[in-house]
Design a protein that fits this description.
- This protein is of the alpha/beta class.
- Helices cover about 50% and strands about 10% of the residues.
- It has one domain (about 10-289).
- It has helices spanning about 35, 45-55, 70-95, 140-150, 155-175, 175-185, 190-220, 225-235, 240-245, 260-275; strands spanning about 10-15, 105-110, 115, 120-125, 130, 135-140.
- A hairpin with a 2-residue loop joins strand 3 (about 115) and strand 4 (about 120-125).
- The protein starts with 11 loop residues before the first strand and ends in a 16-residue tail after the last helix.
């Protein structure tokens, strides 16, 4: 992506290295990948935290006495601020032009290891996530390195897609879709709630694609290979791919984010149409997802 000279969002809380955080004992690389990615791009914090603890992924929380970000970490922080700024520009413009009211941008929280949220304690092992209770998206930037090492998903547009997906959850929240879906999930069986979660996640993928559509149209920032990076990323974060990688087989009833094919399909649809009216993942039949 060509981002030289682009503005950086001010809607950012930089908590990296704060003593109120903590460190995951084994780190992302030491935990089964299915647990690492369960909360990639949304999900239930309590369930994942319990899963990580039960898998032995956390050795306890220790205070960070000093923190010196690496050059790579600083570059990723700047990149994240620029992508967040782009989502603000795109969604502000889209809401205004389509009579959707005012768009209130989310806050990006950069942290290391562990941080408190209105949805519970956030851990790096959860991956990036959005909390509608405080309208913030949380990212430990080391996740991008793990994404490359663990999943082979690399490239600036792949990283941008991760951020845009979390912002997609915020768009769902602003439009009321996310809160309505969560209320329905609270009254459902676990298997039905999982199926609803898939619909939520696929729509957030679609919204990430819509952002990419207008990012390219407005700023001409996409370069050869960028779209392939995002599509490759979508393919390796499908529930079926991750479960097979982690345990050798997939259990469809436990899917919460969608298959690789589904995630690629909805991302591509958003990229090609740029029209959120075509991203209704809730009213169509399951075999149409």
């Amino acid at each position: 992506m060509k981002l030289d000279g682009r503005r950086e969002s001010s809607n950012v809380e930089d908590r990296r290295g704060l003593s109120g955080g903590g460190k995951a004992g084994l780190g992302i690389g030491g935990i089964a990948i299915v647990a690492i990615i369960t909360l990639l791009m949304g999900g239930n914090l309590g369930d994942v935290f319990q899963q990580v603890v039960q898998s032995g992924g956390l050795e306890g929380i220790s205070t960070q006495n000093s923190y010196e970000p690496t050059e790579e970490n600083e570059a990723l922080a700047k990149f994240s601020r620029q992508i967040l700024a782009s989502t603000e520009d795109v969604w502000n413009r889209y809401f205004q032009q389509n009579g959707l009211g005012a768009y209130k941008a989310p806050t990006l929280v950069l942290y290391t290891g562990s941080t408190s949220t209105a949805c519970g304690q956030g851990q790096a092992a959860m991956g990036p996530f959005y909390c509608s209770a405080d309208e913030k998206l949380y990212i430990d930037l080391s996740f991008f390195s793990s994404m490359k090492q663990q999943l082979g998903a690399d490239g600036d547009f792949a990283y941008a897609y991760v951020i845009a997906h979390e912002v997609g959850h915020h768009v769902q929240h602003v439009l009321g879709t996310l809160d309505q879906a969560h209320k329905q999930m609270a009254r459902m069986s676990k298997s039905d709630a999982n199926r609803m979660s898939v619909r939520i996640e696929l729509q957030a993928d679609f919204y990430a694609g819509v952002w990419g559509h207008y990012e390219s149209a407005l700023f001409g920032s996409l370069e050869d290979g960028d779209l392939e990076e995002a599509i490759r990323c979508a393919s390796v974060i499908g529930d079926d791919y991750l479960q097979k990688k982690a345990q050798g087989y997939a259990v469809e009833e436990s899917f919460t984010h969608g298959t690789a094919q589904q995630r690629m399909r909805w991302l591509k649809k958003g990229l090609s149409t740029g029209d959120i009216r075509q991203g209704d993942t809730f009213s169509i039949r399951e075999n149409q997802l």
